[in-house]
Amino acid sequence: MSRIEISNLVKMYGSHKALHGIDISIQPGEFCVLVGPSGCGKSTTLRMVAGLETISGGEIAIGDRVVNGLRPKERGIAMVFQNYALYPAKTVRGNMAFSLKLSKMPKAEIDRRVNEVAEILELTPLLDRKPAALSGGQRQRVAMGRAIVRDPEVFLFDEPLSNLDAKLRGQMRAEIKRLHQRLENTIIYVTHDQVEAMTLADRIVIMRDGRIEQQGTPDAVFHDPDTVFVAGFMGSPPMNLVDCMVTPGGLRLGGTELACTLPEGLRAGDRVTFGIRPDDIRPAADLPGGVPVTLPVDLIEQLGTEKLVHFRAGPHELIGKTGGRVDLAEGTEQRLAFDMAHAFFFDAETGQRIR
Amino acid sequence: MPTAPVPTPTPDKEDAVTPSFRLPTAAGTPYLFLLPGLVILGALLSVPLYKVVEYSLYDNVIVERNPTFVGLDNYRDILGDPGYWSAGFNTIVFTVGSVIGHMIVGIGLALLVNADIHPRARTFFRSMLVLPWIFTAVVVALNWQLLLNPFGLLNYVLDWLGLITEPLDWLGNPDLAMWSLLVISTWRGYPFIMVSFLSGLQTVPKELYEAAEIDGAGFWHKFWHVTLPQLKPVIFGVALLDLIWTFQLFPLVWLTTGGGPGRATEVLSTLTFRLAFVDFEFARAATVAVSILIISAAFTVLYLRNEARRL
């Protein structure tokens, strides 16, 4: 278990600046997830921690050592790759034992460790197979086993589940969570999937264009987003985000007046981005304290336990939710309620939250 | 009485697309297209092949109008001739030595030109290193003769460095000739191996090297545990192909040492040529040629099996 301190980390590719001074402080044993869209710099950051990319500026410390100049093997890390990166010519046992052999560990100790980890990951019957004879999920477990046997200070995961189908992804997610609870190592985990980030993380770092948009606990980034980007990125279906005009009594949403109390400093005539999660728009009967509006229902998506209700407010399409058994018809006018206690307002220009 | 409506038969798909003109044997059509190629191949390959085998069973072929059929006598003669065995031994030394040389230099240079250097430099080195392959054997042989000649550049440089006291006859000294020939053959033949390995190297996933680096592997460990296993199928196939080519290589040997000095670099292909066009013993030449054919065919079968397994 080690603390990781990333300070003012910069990455240049020629004259292109890929990372603009990243600061992340990860506590010992913390599960930190870097999340963001493609090209946001999350994988680059991870690879710089691993020592696979050079550092153009700033500092990375693992434990109490600055590792900028150290080679990957000297950093006390183990990494799980997106494509598993198993050695195809070696058996599962050979893959898991490779790093231990290179470190000249006695054979008996190597065998003990490999067998123990294989037992934890249910790989024992597969130890003599080659990677080509394994399923995607099994390969993923071998890749994790290869990392675990080394007993590293820090685990690095680079989108480890993105090559698995949805069901297996769910299972492996739970397995990684359990493993973290058991091993209590410090983990940096990169994903573009916000569900993975929410379920696994102790701390989520949301990145965009080489900068950190926000970092904090899953609760904090979900329920208290700092920017319109974070609000829109976290959550599925995403938060409804609509450009509105402030009126003396609230907001004008399309042609409809939405009565509500706005943050101080907003005046009639200002433009704001109004955000509200689908959970906070329900049929008026389900949400007695909400602000009622009557709007036409455009489309209904049946998810089983609940339904997503798409409706129109002038030029804007919004999504609300209702129970799976509630009877709603497309094309009808419905009386909906907005839970304005959970509404967000962002500066229409900068995207910053207005509190 | 009302009649039940008769269903109109719908034309099946095949009928619908069949053209009005049809070749008499549809199954034979592909063979019609193959015919010109087969005829040319047959004329250029099968006829000479048949003739060579036929010659090896006669005496005084070509030089006499009515050669005598001698059965396997020519083979018995050849197998009892120490010249044949020494040429056979030289062929093995030359072939194995060349293939090993090609492999080592080819892999080494492939690793170098696959390195992460400036793209322009990489293109430059890749083009330069393929050059030995594109010269004709005559040019290669002449250049190396000029270099290795007792009064050539190599001796001049060695003398200047003080490494030799008198010039060495690299191609004319029986103790040095085979070594010199192997160097020339290695220089001439490595580009094909290098290009094959380069394409193999480019298919090795980058993550494997990164995983190995994190696992603590240095250059040799990465080469041994990642590169080599990934190249193994390529290595085996390319080595066999090289073996087949080098085994019957003629122009380079003939144009540099001519099989000499004495018989020091005489290989089976130069022996065949000498028997046919110097000694005019066409039947014996044909016999040696058939022996080359049999051994090459055996290697070819091995190669084809290996390729079939890979696919």
UniProtKB/TrEMBL annotation, chain A:
GO biological process assignments: carbohydrate transport
Coiled coil segments of this chain: none
Pfam families, per database record: ABC_tran, OB_MalK
Record bears the keyword Membrane: no
The entry's keywords: ATP-binding, Nucleotide-binding, Transport
GO molecular function: ABC-type transporter activity; ATP binding; ATP hydrolysis activity
ABC transporter domain sequence ranges: 4-234
Gene3D superfamilies: 2.40.50.100, Nucleic acid-binding proteins, P-loop containing nucleotide triphosphate hydrolases
Cellular component terms per the entry's GO annotation: ATP-binding cassette (ABC) transporter complex, substrate-binding subunit-containing
SMART domains xrefs: AAA
Keyword Membrane: no
Annotated NCBIfam families: PRK11650.1
PANTHER family xref list: MALTODEXTRIN IMPORT ATP-BINDING PROTEIN MSMX, OSMOPROTECTIVE COMPOUNDS UPTAKE ATP-BINDING PROTEIN GGTA
Family that this chain belongs to: Belongs to the ABC transporter superfamily.
Protein name: ABC transporter domain-containing protein
